[in-house]
Write a structure and sequence with these properties.
With 205 residues, the chain is mainly α. The protein contains nine helices and no strands.
Length: 205
């Protein structure tokens, strides 16, 4: 297994795909081992519930394994799995009375009535060790949980999982401009939500 893990990601993906398509159960296990943790992190932040997140991830792998022959390789295997995870989570979160058009899809400069944060404490410049504390990590997790699913998904994929703008756009089935807009909105909202905490934290140091 260590030899496999040392191979480039695209080669590992090729092995996983070939194995699953040939009915090799060990390939399914390798896929779960490789992508399960990342998919769970995304699902947990969207669902805000461990049980629901686990169900979403399980459903994702079942969907993926059943439809593996439909995967054309236009995007990476991970991106495809993220997309299935996101869609499964949104199916669970979606309600009939939700509006069909989200203002979050509008580009900056086209939005009216945009809420401007009242505090601008520069919490991003705190010493790195401050972010190692459980208290600060919990504050950040809580703040991410307050974001809408469309904003939190972009923030998690781009900032926490390290996907590119293009990969995030492919995952969420939106344009790269929408990804950039949502990421700016997510960062600004997180900054507003955390500014009071970090301001007090800084004064106490």
């Amino acid at each position: 297994m260590s030899e496999i893990n040392n191979q480039p990601a695209d080669e590992i993906d090729a092995l996983i795909l070939a194995g699953i398509r040939s009915g090799d159960k060990s390939a399914c296990a390798l896929c779960i081992e490789t992508y399960g943790p990342s998919l769970y992190r995304l699902a947990l932040r969207l669902m805000q519930n461990e049980k629901d997140a686990e169900d979403v991830v399980q459903e994702t792998f079942l969907n993926a394994f059943k439809s593996i022959d439909s995967f054309e390789g236009r995007s990476g295997l991970g991106t495809w799995l993220y997309r299935i995870t996101y869609n499964n989570a949104m199916m669970r979160l979606r309600k009939p009375d939700l509006e069909t058009v989200s203002v979050e899809d509008k580009l900056d400069g086209m939005e009216e009535g945009y809420s401007v944060p009242q505090q601008f404490f520069d919490w991003c410049c705190l010493p790195e060790e401050d972010f190692d504390s459980e208290e600060v990590r919990l504050e950040l997790e809580n703040a991410i949980g307050e974001l809408s699913p469309s904003l939190s998904s972009v923030f998690v994929l781009r900032e926490l999982e390290g996907l590119s703008t293009r990969e995030t756009a492919d995952t969420l089935d939106v344009s790269e401009d929408v990804v950039k807009t949502r990421l700016r909105r997510a960062r600004l909202q997180l900054r507003e939500q955390l500014s009071t905490y970090f301001a007090d934290h800084n004064e106490a140091i």
